[in-house]
Design a protein that fits this description.
By secondary structure, the chain is mainly β. 0% of the residues lie in helices and 46% in strands.
Length: 82
């Protein structure tokens, strides 16, 4: 899972973006907790990006590609339950 990160603090996984072949880049942010997936938001479509958990609990999603070009943007995401 690209763009995925795990918090050992909360035993929670956040998956932001990614690629769905043949559909293209994903725009969803999903939370995986206790065997259950929950969509918790949207980001700009991107894959091959980084997702970093910051000390304040927010997730920084940066770089990657959309369906055509390399992205030079970043998004700060604040998962409600993370």
């Amino acid at each position: 899972m690209e763009g995925a990160l795990n918090s050992e603090r909360t035993n929670t996984n956040v998956v932001a973006g990614g690629y769905n072949y043949p559909g293209g880049p994903l725009v969803s942010v999903e939370l995986y907790e206790g065997g259950t997936w929950t969509e918790i938001g949207l980001i700009a479509a991107r894959y091959l990006h980084t997702a970093t958990l910051l000390p304040n609990g927010k997730v920084l999603v940066a770089g990657g590609y959309d369906d055509v070009t390399a992205l030079d943007s970043a998004q700060l995401y604040n998962p409600i339950r993370f």
